[in-house]
Design brief:
The complex is a heterodimer.
Chain A (H helix, E strand, L loop, with lengths): L6 H20 L3 H26 L7 E11 L2 E9 L1 H24 L6 H20 L3 H19 L6 H32 L4 H7 L5 H18 L8 H4 L5 H10 L4 H8 L1 H6 L2 H23 L4 H21 L3 H28 L17 H14 L6 H16 L1 H26 L9 H4 L1 H6 L52 H16 L13 H10 L10 H27 L11 H4 L4 H10 L1 H36 L6 H25 L1
Antiparallel strand pairs in A: 1-2
Helix pairs in contact in A: 1-2, 1-4, 2-3, 2-4, 3-4, 3-10, 3-15, 3-21, 4-5, 5-6, 6-8, 8-11, 10-15, 13-14, 13-18, 14-15, 14-17, 14-18, 15-16, 15-17, 15-21, 15-22, 16-18, 16-21, 17-18, 17-23, 18-23, 25-26
Chain B lengths: L8 H21 L3 H26 L3 H30 L14
Helix pairs in contact in B: 1-2, 2-3
The chains are: A mainly alpha, B mainly alpha.
């Protein structure tokens, strides 16, 4: 059964190829179903391989399948090979499983899009790249997938590239990731120099013999790569912007797959981390904890329903880095799995809301949607309780485990994690209350409901009537307040035409069915790793052989564990209660205004823009000048030297036979002279 | 073996060097291609003389054999060279070798 490993990435690749050839002819919805079937088949293959792996004895649960030798270059060879072990199979199962649901959802969500089949083509290619990333048995195959998901994310984020915002968001994601990729590449070179191989099996074997300084350098460079892909400080700026892409993309890339690859990479390389200096794990933990906290504070201030989720994703990924830094690899993977469940659920839920409201993404114009979108609302509530850390929802178990490990690493890290947990519960509750509870606001004129939003969208009330309403060119025939098309200002995030009225409605079954399945998973997902007895820690037993080298073993007493869990629950509930007091009980108009510093994300992004536009631009200009004058000058100088020298030598070619004879003779005399001289000296 | 009163190889070599130098100077200074050709022949014969000298001095027939090779190659070279000179003469009155300088760089 293990021989089927190659089938896991092959099926999405086949789907991609078929869609390239026939996508347009298949059209909607057949192209979507084909893509869904390809990924679904991949999921089935993953399950089959998983069952095969479970059947093996524990010590031989690492199956390597080499398809062919890819790069043979002297002493350096790279095989296209797959490694099926507990870690890669865990990743494969949830990637293909959730990707199948998201594909299904996208059939409904992308309905009516003129480039329907192309979207699924990219999605399949993305899933293929992600599976290469996790299944590769060496760093280069993983890097192939690593770059593949980067390229696909660029295609997918800027899928609606007619809009400037979407196109530049895709570019931003790509460029930011390239900075991280530099770290990955140098780490790969360094690994090869140190170990003579980049195959994981050799790395695991040889990591113990690495010099501490080498292992430290490799780990830090890998961390740079991981901060890029997993949107950690300082490279997290691309992820919130990436929300410009279609919502299924947000769910796939930013909840379940690409952003987790940094965590996967560090887990895979855990033997090297274990061999590096002690302070390195502290660096990883601090990066994670700070990212978690900062992103959570920004999420509190966002108005865009997807931006809240985006910052929440960054924050949750911070938890995973905190876990890795604390030596809790199993907990990191555990949280990755549960997070994939509930965050994919919420992204898809927000997509359902956006879909139902005719592409409205601003929470200031939502409210009271729970009756109109019942399935979306109920499933969303499950996701909310899961991320808020309410037992027994899945998020509670994984977050609690990470906090426990953080406590043993350093109480300060634990405190940051706890504050983040409180903030998480707070901002998610705020989002849920603003979206699904309170007063309906989608049918209110934009200028009334959210004046600054109206300004942002270019609807300055220049022609506002007596009632403060925007008068558009058509005028109000009935004189009743209507919602004006807010997308006429060139802000067209979705390929759908203008709407005069908004009628919130529940989404079709292709969209709600994945929500229901994911809600079920978000509810019971914690069951794979329950902390009560040794036998309930299934994930730990399953993963431990892979991460043994770096895994920290808990020493806290049971009483401490219970106390920490109780504190975490209290923090979660405090966050929910606080949000309820501020956003649920009051009328919308009385609710506290968002602090601008949080709305603008601590001005981090704009500072980078300012810096890059000012001193950064000057620096780049200087580098470009250096390149043009010094580097190009050296290259062109050599060319000029050769040209001028050649021109000079050309004059000796007179065409006179007697002159040539003279040169020959002179040369011969010179040679004889030299020989005589040498003979005399020797 | 050489007799005691025989001419020593040094004299032969000196003569060969002199002939070679005359030939070389002739190639460089004379303008008539036919004379230049004869000078080349002179240089070749100077070389032949050194071969013969060393062959006798070392009592090795190899040098004599090389001379025959040189003669064959020289004959072939003269045929080709004369052919070129004749074909140039057909196209233009060739007074001196310096008139044919089309191959200058």
């Amino acid at each position: 059964m293990l021989d089927l490993t190659w089938l896991i990435p092959a099926l999405p690749l086949a789907g991609f190829l078929v869609l390239v050839a026939l996508g347009r002819r298949l059209g909607e919805p057949l192209a979507g179903w084909l893509a869904t079937a390809a990924v679904g088949g991949s999921f089935v293959a993953s399950v089959v391989v998983f069952l095969g792996l479970v059947g093996e004895p524990e010590e031989s649960r690492a199956f390597s399948q080499v398809l062919f030798e890819w790069v043979p270059a002297g002493g350096f060879t790279v095989d296209v090979g797959f490694l099926a072990d507990p870690l890669s199979l865990t990743m494969c199962l949830f990637i293909t499983g959730i990707a199948t649901l998201i594909h299904l959802y996208a059939i409904g969500y992308m309905h009516g899009d003129p480039r329907f089949s192309k979207f699924f083509l990219y999605l399949n290619l993305f899933v293929f790249s992600m599976l290469m990333l996790v299944l590769g048995d060496n760093l280069l195959i993983t890097f192939l997938g690593w770059e593949g998901v980067g390229a696909c994310s660029y295609f997918l984020i800027s899928f609606w590239h007619e809009s400037d915002a979407n196109a530049s968001a895709g570019k931003k994601a790509f460029v930011t990731n390239r900075i991280g990729d530099w770290g990955y590449m140098v780490a790969m070179f360094l690994t090869f120099t140190a170990l003579g191989s980049i195959t994981y099996a050799d790395i695991i074997e040889g990591a113990g013999g690495l010099a501490t300084s080498t292992a430290t350098a490799i780990t830090l460079l890998l961390l740079v790569g991981a901060t890029g892909k997993s949107a950690q400080i300082p490279l997290f700026v691309w992820l919130p912007d990436a929300m410009a892409g279609p919502t299924p993309v947000s769910a796939l890339i930013h909840a379940a797959t690409m952003v987790t690859s940094g965590v996967y990479l560090l887990t895979r390389m855990s033997p090297v981390i274990a061999a590096s200096s002690d302070w390195v794990t502290m660096v990883i933990a601090v990066v994670g904890a700070l990212t978690a906290l900062v992103a959570a504070t920004i999420a509190v201030g966002q108005h865009d329903i997807k931006k809240v989720l985006a910052y929440s994703t960054i924050s949750q990924l911070g938890y995973m880095f905190l876990a890795i830094g604390s030596g809790a690899y199993v907990a990191a993977i555990f949280h990755m799995v549960t997070h994939a469940f509930f965050k994919a659920l919420m992204f898809l839920g927000s997509g359902s809301v956006i879909h139902g409201l005719g592409d409205e993404q601003d929470m200031r114009r939502m409210g009271a949607l729970r009756k109109l979108l019942p399935i979306t609302a109920i499933t969303y509530l499950v996701g909310w309780l899961a991320i808020a850390g309410v037992p027994p929802f899945s998020g509670f178990w994984s977050k609690d485990e990470i906090l426990l490990f953080a406590w043993e690493k350093s109480p300060v890290l634990w405190a940051i994690g706890l504050v983040t947990a409180l903030l998480t519960a707070f901002y998610m509750s705020r989002q849920v209350f603003l979206t699904f509870f309170g007063t309906p606001r989608w049918d209110r004129p934009l200028v009334d409901a959210a004046p600054e939003l109206a300004r942002e969208r270019g609807l300055v009330p220049a022609g506002a009537g007596d009632d403060g309403e925007v008068d558009d060119a058509d005028g109000d025939e009935a004189g009743s307040p209507t919602v004006h098309n807010v997308y006429e200002s060139g802000h067209l995030p979705h390929g759908v035409g203008p709407k005069d009225e908004i009628h919130p409605h529940e989404s079709p079954w292709t969209m709600t069915a994945p929500l229901v399945v994911l809600a079920g998973l978000a509810l019971v997902g914690g069951a794979i790793q329950l902390p009560f007895t040794d036998s309930t820690k299934r994930l730990e037993h399953w993963l431990l052989p892979v991460v043994e080298a770096g895994e920290h073993h808990l020493t806290s007493s049971t009483a401490t564990k219970w106390a920490l869990a109780a504190v975490a629950i209290v923090a979660g509930i405090a966050g929910i209660v606080g949000a309820a007091a501020l956003y649920l009980r009051r009328r919308y108009e009385d609710q506290p205004a968002t602090p601008p510093i949080l709305l603008r994300g601590w001005y981090y992004d704009s500072s980078i823009s300012t810096f890059m536009g000012g001193p950064g631009r000057k620096a780049f200009d200087a580098v470009a000048w250096f390149d043009r004058t010094v580097v190009d000058g050296a290259v062109n100088g050599v060319a000029t030297l050769v040209r001028v020298g050649g021109g000079g030598l050309r004059r000796t070619q007179t065409g006179f036979v007697r002159a040539y004879a003279g040169f020959l003779t002179a040369g011969a005399i010179f040679v004889v002279f030299v020989m005589i001289l040498r003979g005399a000296l020797l | 073996m050489l007799a005691a009163n025989a001419v020593s190889p040094g004299w032969y070599l000196a003569l060969a060097a002199l002939l070679f130098a005359v030939g070389a100077v002739g190639v460089m200074v004379r303008r008539n291609p036919l004379v230049m050709f004869m000078c080349v022949e002179l240089m070749l014969n100077a070389v032949n003389l050194t071969f013969v000298t060393f062959a006798r001095d070392l009592d090795d027939v190899g040098g004599q054999v090389i001379v025959f090779f040189v003669l064959v190659v020289a004959a072939a070279e003269v045929v080709v060279g004369l052919g070129i000179i004749v074909s140039i003469l057909r196209r233009r009155p060739l007074a001196t070798a310096d008139d044919a300088s089309l191959l200058r760089g």
